DNA sequence: GTGAAAGCGCTAACAA
DNA sequence: TTGTTAGCGCTTTCAC
């Protein structure tokens, strides 16, 4: 592997000059530069970013901490879409992306900030971790610039991008109310997700506006998980036959509810209306197609990367970005009809 | 950021000793080691992998070159599943993954091997690039160990994992033949994918066994693309009404064909049988559920990572891994019925 | 069992 | 415009 030293020798100059020439500094004679460039090409030179990073004290890498990068996440490819968005922005910059997957056993050995510090990443994007994750706090308090997805923490070095979850949920429930539903249950994620808290508020907002009393027994957690949602939905439906609509905090859970309904011979949407959240790919393909609150996951990733890199480049940008959601009315919701 | 120098100072030893202690060498006094460990913890030390990599001349990173990491790839999340598999294996090793996305404009500026060399990756996994990619050859010829996915090149430092495409295709077509179909068309990908070449052979194999003459006009390319497949399928079906079954080299293309059939009021599977390839998530969700040849994309990634890391660790492993496919018979195929 | 010193490939004062 | 020198944080001979 050729180094600038080799080039210097062949070109008959010092390494400094080589370095300057290669990095496009102006204070180098054009003839010298050309010579150096030629030699570099001839020797098939590649700069060693490791050495450069070491001395410059920045690595031009950004760490992507994700937790949903596993086999089970295929159905709900939230993580993938965010990753695509991140990648889209990053690949047009001169940064590279290093992946820290935290679903493995390794996460217990090393904290997020350790991973970042060891690799000397310039910044990090964090997605899919729970608010009760013991290492979240730590990475936020380290002075590594980071952008969180769906976790509203804002400091000097920390920003976040999220969507308007409260409003999104409200739209969904409002839609059900307009269809005449009064007995609307909610299957939420879990308490350690800010989005769950927000979506619950949106649900309550909508009820309030319509003067419908909030019944806490009708809100249960399905852990953002299809099977768990099935279980809680089953119990909910069986013990509260008056429920005519269910708002789910994720599409995956909505799919679980649809399964249960099918099993119980409850027709959707005639007997039960369902609204999901996310607009995953499957939402428009299941039968009947799922009414849901769409969030642009790709854009979330894109904006996160943009925010982070802008911060790293010293551009003084807002540290918060909230995207809008979009209610997609499909075929799992219908006018209430009391049989 | 604390360095071993800081630790040495506080612990009252030399940097050499610190290095040895931290790296678990045996020739260091237990008391000294303990002291050093304590100081390291106290100072919240993180090793600088950049410096280490520089001197050791290996980075403990593996590069992942993919081309399908963009918004459009959501439906056909082949890339994502492979990535998950890679990640699964890698995250249980002490390597990290660095993502080189090549769909961007950047790919034209820097070749794959340049990317790899600059970042000093120890090895690379390459997925989703075409055999006519000008930079493929280059990276293969560089002496960077790499594992290719679905490109059968084998050298001292290059291996690959793939599935048995020929057999998979044969199974699919054989299935159609057993159902009584004689006029079976194929929508292939493109000529710069080895899998397309192989699947075509499998198609021909099946015909041959059944003594059905091969008609080259009935094999058209859809570029692994839903829209393109729609177009070619339309032409194919309209000008050859005798075709009763179509084998597609990807599920995405099969979806395109299904769309066309719907538009032409051709009932599936009654009037037209369709077999796809891949078994993407949607395959089992579309209506009717798609009969297809399943390949385990997650495992492909997993095996690729395993092969690469084993190679890097000097384990002498076979450089080729061929996985089996699995014909999933669902509801787009039916006994031929000449009306 | 420990330390001094060299060096990995690069950048950046400072001097000439 | 160019070169000398030091140093980024680490590992590794080699000597003690």
UniProtKB/TrEMBL annotation, chains A, B:
Coiled coil residues, start to end: none
Recorded GO MF terms: DNA binding
Domain HTH cro/C1-type: start-end pairs: 3-50
Keywords per UniProt: DNA-binding, Transcription, Transcription regulation
Database matches in SUPFAM superfamilies: lambda repressor-like DNA-binding domains, Periplasmic binding protein-like I
All copies of domain HTH lacI-type, residue ranges: 2-56
SMART domains, per database record: HTH_LACI
One protein family per Pfam: LacI
PANTHER family the UniProt entry points to: HTH-TYPE TRANSCRIPTIONAL REGULATOR GALS, LACI-RELATED TRANSCRIPTIONAL REPRESSOR
Name the record gives this protein: LacI family DNA-binding transcriptional regulator
UniProt source species: Cytobacillus spartinae
Organism phylogeny: Bacteria, Bacillati, Bacillota, Bacilli, Bacillales
